[in-house]
Write a structure and sequence with these properties.
The structure is a homodimer of 287-residue chains. By secondary structure, chain A is an all-alpha fold. Chain A is 68% helix and 1% strand.
Chain lengths: 287, 287
């Protein structure tokens, strides 16, 4: 691997995104002709919808920041994307957000039916853990920590979603904090923690990168709310931090979370320039 | 632990069932006041519905047959029951089997709503893997094999369910074989294989107990179809082996699967009397 500092942030991200997408499409997702073909198609549709693949890029970047390589974290990176994908498939269901489209394509339930969407999501979650089991263990006990981190994120993301649905358009500040920490933060935290664990990092580095991930997830979610409202009001029925604070307060919150993320990167054994750049780019994104 | 041969099959099963139920209720499931309480309640409702806990009993029994102790397999046993429970919660959903009742109580969706049932099932699957991560490793690499076995069962059970729904009341023999192997067999197989792995067994013993579990699951499912039809026809729309064979052929199939299960127990390092008895009892059950 060439010196990563030679690459722009965009090149560095694109490279890791391509590694994850190739591994998912060629080695991890069921082949299109695997029986039952309808399940393979629904699972592939869910994962191939694309996006920036921020969580797996973070996972590999954190392995590098912990002194390992991106390759150390390839399986956890793919696993976190599978876990994230399953949550989107289930969130889109008619009984949840009832979204017919995701990133300009039909959502899984709209294309394949409701039962298929429940089942494809279920299979994606199982496949996430199955993929995690392929992670090479640098030390005995590494996989137990990885599975625990993913299991905690897997239950946490559901806890956040349940509170989100229950609160709807009338959240208290406390509910916003809980939903952001769990629905969004837990997956970002697990992505970064998993990168550190897969790289063979000790407890201190693991804790620092977990904090980095959680802070970054928080900034990402606040920014998401600002983008969704696009200068106006949150969409009807949607939980948004703008229901409990104004836009300047939300921007200040992003800044403090981004600063906390940057602080967590101090003193790590590997290169952190691109993670720092990614944190800045997420805080400044407008789409 | 007293010599297990002093116990009747019923005592031996009841003891293991109690261990699993106590661990699930007291240490593994979220406390009733864990936030959000509605999610904890739905998860507990799903798991506390009861039943014979055959899969976890098999898991612990296979650890013993492999030369280890039931305690070695306590976490995998709880994990397999969580995995099984989540599949029931999702199978009962209106978009799948639309069952309002399970074992005489309201099903999770009927009591807590459809969104809550999707999410409680999702959280139970994550909790299954999180629980698995607590298994003490007798050798380095044990957990990777456990997670792989559970991940394979987790995707397999969905593959079986998708074929089941697609075939409905008009399955071919080939579809019946596929659905039985995956929808039912994969969880029985994983339960038994996980017991062997957790006990620290080598490949030969692992393979034998995996075969035992798969054969037993097959016999269990055929027997289930016979019980559901209760001397008459299968319920409308239900996949059943009785759609592709008559009752004597189904009984002969149970006998050959039970014989294969018994053969797989030959030459194991630990006691197998109760597993043998359990296989006989399952083949002869009428409820």
């Amino acid at each position: 691997m060439a010196d990563m500092r030679d690459k722009t942030l965009e090149e560095w991200m694109a490279e890791r995104k391509a590694w994850v997408e190739t591994a998912l499409a060629e080695d991890i997702l069921p082949r299109p002709d695997e029986r039952p073909a309808a399940l393979s198609a629904a699972m592939r549709h869910a994962v191939e919808a694309g996006g920036k693949r921020i969580r797996p890029v973070l996972c590999m970047g954190c392995a590098e920041a912990a002194g390992g390589s991106a390759a150390d974290a390839l399986f956890p990176a793919c696993a976190i994307e599978l876990l994230h994908s399953y949550t989107l498939v289930h969130d889109d269901l008619p009984e949840m957000d009832c979204d017919e489209y995701r990133r300009g394509r039909l959502s899984v339930w709209a294309k394949f039916g409701r039962a298929a969407a429940v089942l494809a999501g279920d299979a994606l979650q199982a496949l996430a853990f199955r993929t995690l089991a392929h992670t090479p263990e640098k030390r005995c006990g590494t996989l137990a920590r990885l599975v625990a981190a993913f299991g905690e994120a897997g239950t946490g993301v559901v806890r956040g979603q349940v509170e989100d649905i229950a609160a709807g358009a009338g959240p208290s500040r406390d509910v916003v904090d809980f939903v952001f920490e769990h629905k969004t933060g837990d997956l970002f935290r697990a992505a970064c923690l998993a990168g550190a664990i897969a790289a063979g990092a000790g407890d201190g580095v693991q804790d620092a990168l977990a904090r980095f991930g959680l802070s970054l997830g928080l900034a990402f979610q606040i920014e998401d709310d600002l983008i969704d409202a696009a200068g106006g009001e949150p969409a009807p029925g949607e939980l948004s931090c703008l229901r409990v604070m104004d836009e300047p307060a939300a921007r200040a919150w992003i800044d403090s979370a981004t600063a906390a993320a940057a602080a967590a990167l101090e003193g790590l054994p590997g290169p952190v320039e691109h993670l720092r750049g990614l944190a800045r780019a997420l805080a400044a994104r407008r789409t």
